[in-house]
Amino acid sequence: MRQAYSDILVEQQRQWRKTLALSAGILAVICGFSIYTGLFDPQRLYEGIPSIVSLMAEGMPPDFSAAKTWLKPLFDTLAMSIAGTAIAVFFSVPLGLLAARNTTPHPVVYQMARAILNGLRSVPELILGILFVAAVGFGALPGVLALGLHSIGMVGKFISEAIEHVAEEPLEATRSAGATALQVVTHGVLPQVLPQIADVTIYRWEY
Known about the structure:
Layout: H1 2-36, H2 42-47, H3 49-58, H4 71-98, H5 107-122, H6 125-136, H7 140-164, H8 168-176, H9 181-206
Helix pairs in contact: 4-7, 4-9, 5-7, 6-7, 7-9, 8-9
């Protein structure tokens, strides 16, 4: 008994040292990049304060004389955000299912879905917007397509991670009842991840 307890204690200490070393390494990387970017340069930060104050002072009081011309751009922005988010969620749910280890039909499909999500997420909305302006012209449409495609990468990533962390008991129960793969998803997976899908949808729309 004493030997077993000693082995457990040694293993816990080993895990603790491993965690401590990993944390120290991550902290060193963060500090190194922070120093490289000038985040720890107090003189430079202090010298920028007057410019910030001057910029804020120049913006006061706000000029609302052209407020009537803001209505259409505001409506366009609202429409693009809603339509773009809707496109993202519509395509992110099936891609998220394919990019989750516990719901993907095949490892190759899993890797392909992950690659698609990573690719869409790595291209900024501005670059996509330029491409779609060249393709379909100016207006709200290129904005919707750019926001939608980029958002698919992020929303799909969140959905796939949420699916991989669902409880297995409901899935096993539906399978044991003779449910098909689609029924397992609709009755075992989606009810567990709907709150997360709603959260990430609202977050992305606000973003």
